[in-house]
Amino acid sequence: MNNNNIDRRQFLKLFAGGTAGAAALLTGCKKQADNPAAEDYVRQVEPPVGKMTYRTNPKTREEVSLLGFGMMRLPTKGSSPSARESSDEIDQEMVNRQVDYAIEHGVNYFDTSPAYCQGLSERSTGIALSRHKRSEYHVATKLSNFAPDTWSREASIEMYHNSMKELQVNYIDYYLLHGIGMGGMESLEGRYLNNGILDFLLAERKAGRIRNLGFSYHGDIEVFDYLLAHHDKYQWDFVQIELNYLDWNYADEINDQNTDARYLYGELQKLGIPAVIMEPLLGGRLSKLPQYLATELKRRDPERSVASWAFRYAGTPEGVLTVLSGMTFMEHLKDNLLSYCPLKPLTNVEMQYLQTTVAEQIVGLETIPCNDCKYCMPCPYGIDIPGIFVHYNKCKNDGTLPRLKMNKQYWELRDKYLIGLDRAVPRARQADHCIGCGQCEPHCPQRIRIPREMHKISEFVEALKQNKALNTED
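The structure corresponding to this sequence follows.
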């Protein structure tokens, strides 16, 4: 296949390799329907220009904006606030406007991947960034060779070169092995070691076509530890990890296959490796706290949004190079700029309050740890997996799950849950249509046992419809 003439159809074939698992990673654009009218944005002020907080890359001595623009949840056309389903076509004009506004306010780190937005994020990012001087931005992308059909040296190198073409650059500032830990050591060996691709990338770094080489981590801690144990050989320039005030101490309690951010960040600090932070909001969950927690945070600082607490938490540690955010809407971008233009670091007391008092209460809610990343999509049977989880979690957070018939509000809550579910997710895409094929589960960064959770929610919904007693709290 000619690298210079690869079209979208050929690329998707190369990337997905005909497997449903890899195709699942090609969905990522956030629907504009997920934009509730947040009170935090009603009186939003304009963020100041020239006040961005920067961190210094210890290797290159370049300044990197503390806020990084994640190009995974790009705005799409044809969506409406009342419907989750909408067009998958990226709104390039809006992407351009957001990138221009971000650069104007000091953002210079833009993170994408061949896997995002059905394979179109790199192209959209390249269009937006190419309108600016190359010296104004750092671009990060990944070798997202998840499908076994793309594990060969030739296919992986083709993906690497295609990224440069789509991004319209002749070098990549930050290049990552994508999602190491997913699939364990076997996947690491197949994707990067046995085929010589990691050696190829090290040579590309030496040649200057990759300025910084790192990896993003999800899943098996053995892989993370292995790569750090070989830091003398690979000289990792940065590592991307999930860090927020819930995952700091409770990642492994939310899911026993996860690792606490405290350990991940601590191991990087020992080696002096800068951390790039993903999921500071856990896919938005930390901006949609139960009302009593949100009220307490607003009481402590009325001028700041609930989300800003999570962003300031993620940006306060000195070993953090940049904090990524998928900012679908201009309101999100402005709010995050307000958090980092400039950063007002949290005090030790505030850090402890978030990672203990607030985190403990969130863990106690026992919600499904879905970040709405859509790595599980598309489901071969059309089920809207993240949509089902988001609706369930919202009701759980709000304390509106209908549970006990003796509760005088039961019938009202029951009707609201069922009506809300039908509005959020079309009936043909709800949990009762899950056959338990399990194709989604290996691709969930949070290691959710998706078929099991679908079955539980399906039983819960059916019990509501049949007016059966619901006496459990799990």
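Residues 1-28, 30-38, 79-84 have pLDDT under 50 and may be disordered.
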